[in-house]
Amino acid sequence: MTSTRPDPTLQSLLNSHPNLSYEGSKGLVMEGTPLADLARQHGTPCWVISADTLRRRARALKDAFEAKNLPVHCHFAVKAQDHQACLTVLAQCGFGADVVSGGELRRALAAGIRAQDIVFSGIGKTDEELELAIHHQIGQINVESVEELHRLDALARKLERRARIAFRVNPDIDAQTHSKITTGRAEDKFGIAHDTVPALYRKTQTDMTGVELIGLAVHLGSQMVTEAPFRRGYERIASLVRTLRADGLHVSDIDCGGGLGIAYRDEKAPPPSMLAEVIAETLGDLNVQLHVEPGRWLAAPSGVLLARVIDVKEAARRFVIIDAGMNELVRPAMYDSWHGILPLHTPEDTTAGDVVDVVGPICESSDIFARQRRLPSLKKGDLVALLDAGAYGTVMSSTYNSRPLAAQIMIDGDRQAVIRRRQTLDELLAQEAVPDWLAHP
Ligand SMILES: Cc1ncc(COP(=O)(O)O)c(C=O)c1O
Ligand SMILES: N[C@@H](CCCC[NH3+])C(=O)O
């Protein structure tokens, strides 16, 4: 957000978001549904997610692998968007799940995703979470360390089960993305150092009876928009597989992780065909079952956050104060990330407008969605959409400043449903208890 790169024009934002268009008096329409109608009906702030966009992107991802003749199991990264309705849509598209907690595991199962189609990643899995995964005999647990390996082996033996596992490899490769969402450098907390994998792999396959080690997993980071780190990462995995096999060890599965980025602003985000091509070229001849774990690419463009302008404050800058805050969408505050903002009414002139700061109501200067951005003129009461909010939006929201969680609406063709009710303040307060000894001293 602090960059001096010119902002994309409204027209180029619309071009890069084919599920959004202006239709005269209906204003901004998402997959046939006028967003202003939803905002008026359900109040703001509120999240909207399109089942059609999710399905289309799920299909496009699968098509990219099919075009390369690559049989790849796709597991949606639940952390990006964990709503049961979204998981149901993706399960119906043939997706399994990548989960990182017992909670996400329960969600995936509740949405009808088969245990065998679930991969459990996550740097700090508790004994209880591992036992849950063992109990349900999920497809694969990605082991993050030698310490976790021993814990898992012991737990599985205690439960008289054999857990299917892969080693998450830390390949020491920079994903060329935001430092806070980079996971594959040696200094990052994730995975098992690549040079220690062969010895540990041998020991595990020869000595451990609680686990069945089926292969390797790698995930370099998120919002990756260049090809080189994917290629380097997968080449490293391919070379490890060759080393392991030369040593007589068995490798049947490779999990390529997630990370494929999108164009929030003007990024030259590569399409899934790039990922398919890189995987085909680096891992395609290894005769293994391949897996991917995409999150953002599927969900982000499928959702928007709707908000209303509370006031336009004229000060050193013109501040457009909206009723959504960093407690809803924390990405700009957390990663300085850029999200497109479009008015819900059709602008008279898409090229004109005012240079403004769009800010939320939270008492933090980091609660800012756009800095010195030219937007069509906005006044008190106008409605806006924050784009690409379908991933890492609802899932990262909080009740900071005692703001109840916002509602979430799913649109699907001409149908729509409130898939998450707006939390009430009473519900928020009801979660808290003042001990008797304090209330009545
Ligand atoms: C292990 C793992 N898999 C998959 C993902 C999904 O990443 P993305 O949403 O960037 O596709 C993440 C998040 O970065 C992750 O940590
Ligand atoms: N929360 C991050 C992505 C993290 C990916 C998790 N491994 C974002 O909003 O961009």
Automatic annotation (TrEMBL):
Residues 53-300 form the Orn/DAP/Arg decarboxylase 2 N-terminal domain. Its cofactor is pyridoxal 5'-phosphate. Substrate binds at R296, R331, Y335, E364, Y392. One of its GO terms (molecular function) is diaminopimelate decarboxylase activity. Pathway: Amino-acid biosynthesis; L-lysine biosynthesis via DAP pathway; L-lysine from DL-2,6-diaminopimelate: step 1/1. InterPro entries: Ala_racemase/Decarboxylase_C, DAP_deCOOHase_LysA, De-COase2_CS, De-COase2_N, Orn/DAP/Arg_de-COase, PLP-binding_barrel. The keyword Amino-acid biosynthesis applies. Keywords: Amino-acid biosynthesis, Decarboxylase, Lyase, Lysine biosynthesis, Pyridoxal phosphate. Pyridoxal 5'-phosphate binds at G259, E293, P294, G295, R296, Y392. The modification N6-(pyridoxal phosphate)lysine is found at K79. It holds the Pfam family Orn_Arg_deC_N. Belongs to the Orn/Lys/Arg decarboxylase class-II family. LysA subfamily. Homodimer. This is Diaminopimelate decarboxylase. The lineage of its organism: Bacteria, Pseudomonadati, Pseudomonadota, Alphaproteobacteria, Acetobacterales. The gene is lysA.
